[in-house]
Write a structure and sequence with these properties.
CATH superfamily of one domain: Succinate dehydrogenase/fumarate reductase flavoprotein, catalytic domain
Low-confidence stretches: none
Oligomer: single chain
Shape: globular
CATH architecture of one domain: Alpha-Beta Complex
CATH topology of one domain: Flavocytochrome C3, Chain A, domain 1
Strand order of the largest sheet: 1-20-19-11-17
CATH class of one domain: Alpha Beta
Strand content: 5-15%
Structural class: alpha/beta
Radius of gyration: 24 Å
Number of helices: 18
Length: 662
């Protein structure tokens, strides 16, 4: 059953360009004296969480911040490599707020909300100014201006970067702001704590139950608002580019307490990942999309060609992205590049021992940059070896840490032989449904960054994750949370002795005790691996009705087996990573079922959701705008039962078209 009656996106009135401006000037405010009496919990301290916590504390709110790592600096945001988008138009190449807005909507295959995306584009420039002021060491041109590189899905250069470690540098900037407030006493920092449930009183979110991961103790924490900034759920596939600890538990607990889960089947497969090397792996490593800026992707023209890439002559190479998509070439969006690589490998043109890889080659870039260095220094008779040496030096300055990482993992030197890459699970566009204020369907419960669904539609453009996380934390939530907290001034301090806290803590404790008491024969890790194989095979880069129906049956059987046969070592009252893992795997299993149900009900292909039954003659995604121009927002009813709510997507400012990057 589907309904749209309970969804109100609370999008402000007025023209698209004026919505955010007018909203900011009319939203209710909380005066400074009252802010000191209002408590806010922030769960997760990556880019979205750290920036939100620091900013809210700076504004005067009392903040509690939670992370399951030993330090906020270990948040997975640190792993982002390539850059962050912003419409600064430094290159004078025609960029603008509107173009960033349009590229994001188009890149998401017309499945994102106009008002949220335009706001994101509007505040993007402010993020760069904020981070420069914090001392983030963005790359600069010779004259001192910030440098930009190209990313997929756009024809301008708008991606700001700090070598191949942009996420790390941005996180350190947000972390410095967070720690400043910790030092001032406005933020209470809870490291090694995991949120295990949401507490609701009279329908409103009033706090969380957290577990101290060192002692095993359960703790009650109250607040007037709770912000979930807990990242994505890509690890439902077991193998992904996500950190090993990344999980869905906080968002899933919120979902089971009434927060709708939106578009769960929209998964991004990243095209430039180091290929799987064997059954032993538990994680995959990403090569930044920025490498597509200078590298060329190709496969041999001959099937089952076993020669090393540097021994295959130019005329025997198929630069398939440049051939199929001449307008964008190697810079097509991630979903298109990923499917194209899969198609070539499935057709027998894959490389490497597994034949599940394509080449990412920098030889042309070495030559181009080397020739540029020769020209700069007025050297007209340079040898080919000198040109290559100079070119490699330029590439090393731009991408050196990525090349070093590739060599350490594969044992191959990418300066001498082309990299081998293959698509892998990377980012999840789905997440908790939120309105324009970033509030979920539970009053007082917000979701920021990758944990929500709001900005990327069915496919995220590269370098837009960091942009969304910092936009939500620095510039959106500090304004929108006031609309709710202005009505909470008279609430006063919320007691954790309330029956709702007692009952919720008991439910968390009962679940933990049940996990420990099963004493089966199978580790949580093995259940996770089995779930991941089902998800990748039947709800991965391509899906079909038969496979999805089989996956739902298999996942339900896996869940039953899990609760009868999982073996959790150790004790409840100790440091127990196995127990933490079991808890997270149980949630992943339930999420996997919903992802397959969502993919089964969306009878179209769009962005990262590719149903094999719905494609063009050329193998491209075939949308059905007449029947599926909506956000799927799922309400949890009971085990194996959800109700679908639809938020219709209305585009008043752009022309809807079938995506083309040719």
């Amino acid at each position: 059953m589907a309904t749209s009656s309970r969804l109100d996106a609370r999008i402000p009135q007025g023209s698209l360009e004026d919505k955010w401006k007018k909203y900011k000037s009319s939203v209710p405010l909380v005066n400074p004296a009252n802010k000191r009496n209002i408590e806010v919990i922030v769960v997760g301290t990556g880019l979205a969480g750290a920036s939100a916590a620091a900013t809210l504390a700076e504004m005067g709110y009392k903040v509690k911040a939670f992370c399951f790592q030993d330090s906020p600096r270990r948040a997975h945001s640190i792993a982002a490599q390539g850059g962050i988008n912003a419409a600064k138009n430094y290159q004078n190449d025609g960029d603008s707020v509107h173009r960033l807005f349009y590229d994001t909507i188009k890149g998401g295959d017309y499945r994102s909300r106009e008002a949220n995306v335009h706001r994101l584009a509007e505040v993007s420039g402010n993020i760069i100014d904020q981070c420069v002021a914090q001392g983030v060491p963005f790359a600069r041109e010779y004259g001192g201006l910030l440098s930009n590189r190209s990313f997929g899905g756009v024809q301008v250069q708008r991606t700001f970067y700090a070598a191949g470690q942009t996420g790390q540098q941005l996180l350190l900037g947000a972390y410095s702001g967070l720690q400043r407030q910790v030092g001032m006493g406005t933020i209470a920092m809870y490291n090694r704590h995991e949120m295990l449930d949401v507490v609701k009183i009279d329908g409103k979110c009033r706090g969380i139950i957290a577990r101290n991961l060192i002692t095993g103790e359960l703790e009650r924490h109250s607040a007037h608002a709770v912000l979930l900034c807990t990242g994505g759920y890509g690890n439902v596939f077991y193998l992904s580019t996500n950190a090993m600890g990344s999980n869905v538990t906080a968002a899933w607990k919120a979902h089971k307490r009434g927060a709708f889960f939106a578009n769960p089947c929209f998964t991004q497969i990243h095209p430039t990942c180091i290929p799987v090397s064997g059954e032993h792996q538990s994680k995959l490593t990403l090569m930044s999309e920025s490498l597509r800026n200078d590298g060329r992707i190709w496969v041999p023209k001959k099937q089952n060609d076993t020669r090393p890439g540097n021994e295959i002559p130019e005329e025997e190479r198929d630069y398939y992205l440049e051939r199929r998509y001449p307008a964008f070439g190697n810079l097509v969006p991630r979903d298109i590049a990923s499917r194209a690589a899969k198609e070539r490998c499935d057709a027998g043109y894959g490389v490497g021992s597994s034949k599940l890889a394509v080449f990412l080659d920098f030889s042309a870039a070495f030559h181009r940059y080397g020739q540029g260095e020769a020209n700069k220094n007025n050297i007209t008779n340079a040898s080919e070896a000198q040109i290559l040496e100079w070119g490699k030096a330029v590439v090393k300055e731009k991408y050196g840490n990525l090349f070093d990482m590739y060599k350490q993992i594969t044992g191959e030197d990418p300066y001498e032989v082309p990299m081998r890459i293959y698509p892998a699970v990377h980012y999840t566009m789905g997440g908790l449904w939120v309105d324009y204020n970033l509030m979920t369907t539970v009053p007082g419960l917000y979701s920021l960054g990758e944990a929500n669904f709001s900005d990327h539609g069915a496919n995220r453009l590269g370098a837009s994750a960091l942009m969304q996380g910092l936009a939500d934390g620095y510039f959106v939530i500090p304004i929108t949370v006031g609309a709710y907290l202005a009505g909470e001034i008279r609430t006063g301090k919320i007691s954790t002795d309330h029956e709702a806290f007692v009952q919720t803590e008991k439910e968390v404790k009962d679940r933990i005790e049940k996990l420990i008491s099963i004493k089966g024969n199978t580790s949580p890790e093995l259940f996770h691996r089995r779930l991941g194989k089902i998800m990748w095979d039947k709800c991965g880069m391509a899906r079909n009705e038969k496979g999805l129906k089989e996956a739902i049956v298999e996942i339900r059987a896996l869940r039953e087996e899990f609760w009868k046969d999982v073996k959790v070592m150790g004790k409840i009252g100790d440091f127990n990573p196995e127990l933490d893992k079991a808890n997270r795997v149980a949630d992943f299993i339930e999420l996997g079922e919903l992802m397959c149900i969502d993919a089964l009900t969306r009878n179209e292909s769009c962005g990262g959701h590719f149903r094999e039954e719905y494609q063009t003659e050329e193998g491209e995604a075939l949308r059905d705008d007449e029947n599926f121009m909506f956000v799927s927002a799922w309400e949890h009813i009971a085990t194996e039962k959800w109700e679908l709510h639809k938020e219709d997507l209305v585009y008043d400012n752009i022309k809807i078209a079938q995506r083309s990057y040719k």
